[in-house]
Design goal:
The chain is 38% helix and 14% strand. It is of the alpha/beta class.
């Protein structure tokens, strides 16, 4: 009698997991492994880089940004399936990195999610991993999972373990360059707040603090706090507030900002300093009651580990197109969950990042809130994708379509808006 083929999943089941269960976040979700087991082998036969014309003008009152800062990786297979991944914003260096790695992917089975990830990660880590290399790895990983979802007939959230929630709460990132109808924080603060509340969005991220040389003056601190006080005084607690400092400050300034924010019960303080000193963040976290959020600038569970162990953050943030990909983001959140740390993904890149993040957030046990931006989902993303999730009552839902489920507009390729370069083929 021919026995059933032994797979990693069946081996763990037969072994009763035992001490192997300690691998925990090192393993793909059981649903992903089951999809791999239940689909047919295939091979990557061609890899394309898809960028967009630099002179695309979206419009819509962004106040600044007006084109596409993202680009796509497309993996073609001998099964006829094509998976698409995304990253941003340094297109020249990222496409260059893809050209370096792509030849080694030809002939690989795209279902080998962890195998491809491990091989690429090892190759780049031995040469100072990060930057364009990590962003390209993230895009490749997204494209692989898109293929696996299509092959199995399952939407991405099913591959990640299935829905824990039917809809995902979002906040609006509010900047002068991704503006709502060209409104600006400061002169238009309460117009923006009312615009969001009228649409059921009850949380916003703002950037109130500026400093030319890492140290925040008393005047700059007071100028930023005016935004916070105005929102609290006029909207009370109807609007949750996230404060992003974009890594601009030194430790003394971060301490002063956190202390000033304590009476206002904000959702979290994000990237008060650069993310390359976990000890400094641990000190900040010990000294304040404000939840500390870290950080879209970190990549892989190995970089987050020290922040968790040192109790240096209260909310984990990552970007699926920077941190190592969708599967790595799930592992980071699973690791954070062991410390009871919630997740708040960064999504202000391209439409595939936004849609993939909605899938992941639907499946995360330790989800807090997801980023969104009115100009992007109203104007920019629909230029490229037909089925962009638009918030309803302050929440979005992932598509019920196999894979990522993004309905990429075919006219992009006919009109010349999309520029396709084949970087490797069988």
């Amino acid at each position: 009698m021919r026995g059933r083929r032994t797979t990693r999943r069946t081996f763990l089941m037969q072994a009763g997991a035992g001490p192997l269960a300690a691998l925990g976040t090192a393993s793909l979700p059981a649903a992903t492994l089951a999809a791999i087991d239940n689909t047919q082998p295939m091979k990557i036969t061609r890899i394309d880089a898809v960028r967009f014309r630099k002179d695309i003008r979206i419009g819509g009152g962004s106040g600044g940004a007006d084109g596409a800062e993202f680009w796509w990786v497309r993996l073609h297979t001998d099964a006829g399936l094509v998976g698409t991944g995304e990253t941003y914003p340094f297109i020249e260096s990222e496409t260059g990195a893809l050209k370096d790695y792509a030849p080694d992917l030809i002939g690989r089975d795209p279902r080998d999610i962890d195998g491809v990830w491990r091989d690429l990660h090892h190759a780049m880590t031995m040469r100072n991993a990060g930057g364009a290399d990590m962003r390209v790895l993230s895009a490749i990983n997204m494209a692989q999972l898109d293929i696996l979802g299509q092959a199995s007939g399952l939407p991405l959230y099913r591959l990640l373990g299935g829905k824990i929630r039917s809809r995902v709460r979002v906040y609006n990132t509010t900047t002068d360059y991704w503006a709502i109808n060209e409104m600006k924080m400061g002169p238009d603060t309460m117009k923006i707040v009312r615009f969001l509340l009228d649409r059921g969005i009850t949380a916003m991220k703002i950037y109130p603090f500026e400093a030319p040389d890492h140290y925040l003056s008393n005047k700059a601190l007071e100028d930023g706090m005016r935004w916070i006080r105005e929102i609290r005084d006029k909207a009370d607690n109807a609007m949750d507030i996230c404060v992003d400092c974009w890594g601009r400050f030194d430790l003394p300034s971060a301490q002063r900002i956190a202390k000033a924010l304590e009476p206002y019960n904000i959702l979290y303080l994000e990237d008060a300093m650069l993310a390359n000193n976990a000890q400094a963040y641990a000190q900040l976290a010990r000294e304040t009651s404000v939840p500390i959020c870290m950080s879209e600038t970190l990549a892989t569970r190995y970089e987050y580990r020290e922040f968790f162990e040192l109790k240096a953050c209260d909310v984990v943030m990552y970007d699926l197109t920077w941190c190592g990909g969708v599967s790595e983001a799930k592992k980071i959140s699973d690791m954070a969950d062991a410390y009871f740390i919630p997740t708040s993904p960064h999504t202000c890149g391209g439409p595939l990042l936004y849609i993939c993040s909605a899938h992941l957030c639907a499946a995360l046990p330790n989800f807090l809130i997801m980023e969104s931006n009115y100009w992007k989902y109203t104007h920019q993303f629909p230029y490229f994708v037909n089925n962009v999730p638009v918030p309803e009552g302050g929440h979005v839902r992932p598509p019920e379509v196999p894979g990522i489920g993004a309905e990429i507009k075919p006219e992009l390729f006919r009109s010349g808006d999309a520029i396709v370069e084949t970087v490797a083929k069988a």
